[in-house]
Every structure is written in structure tokens, then in C-alpha cells.
Automatic annotation (TrEMBL):
Residues 6-157 form the PurE domain. Substrate binds at S14, D17, R44. Belongs to the AIR carboxylase family. Class I subfamily. The gene is purE. Pfam families: AIRC (PF00731). It catalyses: 5-carboxyamino-1-(5-phospho-D-ribosyl)imidazole + H(+) = 5-amino-1-(5-phospho-D-ribosyl)imidazole-4-carboxylate. This is N5-carboxyaminoimidazole ribonucleotide mutase. Its EC number is 5.4.99.18. Pathway: Purine metabolism; IMP biosynthesis via de novo pathway; 5-amino-1-(5-phospho-D-ribosyl)imidazole-4-carboxylate from 5-amino-1-(5-phospho-D-ribosyl)imidazole (N5-CAIR route): step 2/2. PANTHER family: PHOSPHORIBOSYLAMINOIMIDAZOLE CARBOXYLASE, PHOSPHORIBOSYLAMINOIMIDAZOLE CARBOXYLASE CATALYTIC SUBUNIT. It comes from the Bacteria. Catalyzes the conversion of N5-carboxyaminoimidazole ribonucleotide (N5-CAIR) to 4-carboxy-5-aminoimidazole ribonucleotide (CAIR). Keywords: Isomerase, Purine biosynthesis.
């Protein structure tokens, strides 16, 4: 749901991050939260990063989800140029299975926070849920949808394992 009124920005370092970051997008879709997904590379498109991060609040965004892999500087650099909350998703890299991405994103110096999630799909889904939880503080209807999402998740968990699954 890419809309001009989007409150969540999903940014990623490369097209190759989309198979991971689309899980954040799909989770926001399920919650009825508008987002705008963009490719912004800290290394290949630094000017695009500066323009986006410095203008993100004025554009109307409230939360940024930033996914990157390898030398994953995107979340931290974005956080350094915006007062908005930034949630970082370490994308699973080919060479080091995302350990490099995780450590690059999580070890921020005191003063510039990035809320760092798990490597890969779990991190992308949870970043979206956290973004929704932040927005839900000022949006009772979204808070209800978030409650319903969790209740549906709980209801989908069988009490006993099945040989069919
Ligand atoms: C990072 O480099 C991107 O976030 C991506 O995870 C990784 C590899 O990018 P590609 O070479 O696949 O474009 O900047």
C-alpha cells in the first residue's frame, strides 16, 4: 500500500533486499498501515540517502524501517540524519549469513539509536509490528487491528502437533 500519506518508510539498500523487506510490507498491509518502499543505498546512492533522511519528517513519515545486508550502514546513517525512530533489519548476506549485517546495525554508538531486529524475515515482520505499535499509541483503530492480528495469530496455533503439517 504505497501512498503519499504513508507514515512508514521502508527503505533498503538494494533490490536484492526486497525478498526480505517485502515481509515488512506485507505485515503492514495486513494491519492497514500505509507505507512507501524505496531503494536507498548508503554506499551507491549517498545523495539519495541524505535527501531522504533529512526530509523524512517533513514528508510526513513517523517511523522508518531500514533493511540492509553486509556492511549495513543504511539504518545507522539514516538515524543520524532524522529524529524519527529507525528500526533496522539485518538482511541475510551470502558471505556471512547476515552476522555481518546484524553486527553492523546493532553496534551503534551511544547517542544515535537504531532498534535492531532479528536477521531476515523474522526481523522484517517484527519491524513492521513495532512500527505499527508506535503508530497505534496515537491511533486507537490501529491499536484494535493490532490486537486482532495477535488474537488471530494465537488462534492459528494448534494445541497439538500434526503429522500433516
Ligand atoms: C547492501 O549490499 C544491500 O543492502 C544488500 O543487502 C547488499 C548486497 O547488495 P547487492 O550487491 O545485491 O545489490 O548494500
Amino acid at each position: 500500500m504505497a501512498e503519499t500519506s504513508a507514515e512508514v518508510a521502508i527503505i533498503m539498500g538494494s533490490q536484492s533486499d526486497w525478498p526480505t523487506m517485502r515481509h515488512a510490507a506485507e505485515t503492514l498491509d495486513a494491519l492497514g498501515v500505509a507505507y512507501d518502499a524505496r531503494i536507498i543505498s548508503a554506499h551507491r546512492t549517498p545523495d539519495r540517502l541524505v535527501a531522504f533522511a533529512k526530509g523524512a519528517r517533513a514528508e510526513g513519515f513517523k517511523v522508518i524501517i531500514a533493511g540492509a545486508g553486509g556492511a549495513a550502514h543504511l539504518p545507522g546513517m539514516a538515524a543520524s540524519m532524522t529524529p524519527l525512530p529507525v528500526f533496522g533489519v539485518p538482511v541475510q548476506s551470502k558471505a556471512l549469513s547476515g552476522q555481518d549485517s546484524l553486527l553492523s546495525i546493532v553496534q551503534m554508538p551511544a547517542g544515535i539509536p537504531v532498534g535492531t531486529l532479528a536477521i531476515g524475515r523474522s526481523g522484517a515482520v517484527n519491524a513492521a509490528l513495532l512500527a505499527a505499535a508506535v503508530l497505534a499509541l496515537a491511533d486507537p483503530a490501529l491499536a484494535e487491528r493490532l490486537d486482532a492480528w495477535r488474537a488471530k495469530q494465537s488462534a492459528a496455533v494448534a494445541e497439538r502437533p500434526s503429522d500433516e503439517a
